[in-house]
Amino acid sequence: MSAVIVAIDGPSGTGKSSTSKAVAEAMGLSYLDTGAQYRAITWWMLSNGVPADDAEAVAAAAAKPVIDSGTDPAAPTIAVDGTDASGPIRSKEVTAAVSSVSAVPEVRSRITALQRAIAAEAPGGIVVEGRDIGTTVLPDADLKIFLTASPEARASRRSGELKGKDATDLSATREALIKRDAADSGRKTSPLKKADDAVEVDTTELTLEQVVECVVTLVEQAAAAKGGGTVGAEAAEAADEKAGQISK
Ligand SMILES: Nc1ncnc2c1ncn2[C@@H]1O[C@H](COP(=O)(O)OP(=O)(O)O)[C@@H](O)[C@H]1O
Ligand SMILES: Nc1ccn([C@@H]2O[C@H](COP(=O)(O)OP(=O)(O)O)[C@@H](O)[C@H]2O)c(=O)n1
């Protein structure tokens, strides 16, 4: 029996993580947050005095950190050299430095190999989310989704996560998002890009629940088309029910 592989890409704040986790959980698939891996390696560079904007120094150190990702969608984990890194990888410092570190080819080839190994080992299939999953990491994925949303919607979602937010936060968040998208889309190695065969879903006017329902349906279709996929009629029914319960 073959496992279904789903690639979900798109810029920041389009809903990749929330959607991927909910879909994976509803359908009994594993889940991999590849952004967390790039953030983890960036955190290691900053913690070990490697300047994020020094591509040569980053390349020389790229093989050093041991990155470990837990793929249970109900409780995903990320560890660096055996230490839980889930808190520090979300810091402003890491967010500001991650695009420089992730543009370094030695970093990408190492993390890409890790991602492919995790996907190959996922017993019942996996949802992998990032920027280059459909184009580079898993070009043979059974289903590729590219999520988009307006910069305004993405900034307001992101600043909604900050405590004590105000108008300054919103405009700063918007500027930081646009800057990061430009860096991720403009880099030479594996830029953020929609794969030619990806389904594009504009989430600007959709609730998270609607996006999840839409993706669950697409995964069911992909599994059925694959034939013998792990998402059977019973699991699909349970998934529909679960998707209906997920709220914003
Ligand atoms: N369709 C949606 N409508 C409103 N808010 C959303 C939607 N999708 C995600 N969110 C919220 O937006 C924020 C960013 O979502 P996230 O899944 O982390 O995006 P990404 O992984 O693409 O950066 C989260 O707080 C999430 O709850
Ligand atoms: N497949 C991926 C995933 C993330 N990344 C990099 O990692 C950064 C952080 O990714 P993320 O998914 O955690 O970002 P958010 O959109 O959640 O803020 C991105 O801005 C990219 O620079 C990448 O280069 N390739």
Automatic annotation (TrEMBL):
Its main location: cytoplasm. It is found in: Cytoplasm. It comes from Streptomyces marispadix. It catalyses: dCMP + ATP = dCDP + ADP; CMP + ATP = CDP + ADP. SUPFAM superfamilies: P-loop containing nucleoside triphosphate hydrolases (SSF52540). Keywords: ATP-binding, Cytoplasm, Kinase, Nucleotide-binding, Transferase. PANTHER family: CYTIDYLATE KINASE (PTHR21299:SF2), CYTIDYLATE KINASE/PANTOATE-BETA-ALANINE LIGASE (PTHR21299). Pfam families: Cytidylate_kin (PF02224). The keyword Cell cycle does not apply. ATP binds at G10, P11, S12, G13, T14, G15, K16, S17, S18. Residues 226-248 are annotated as: Disordered. This is Cytidylate kinase.
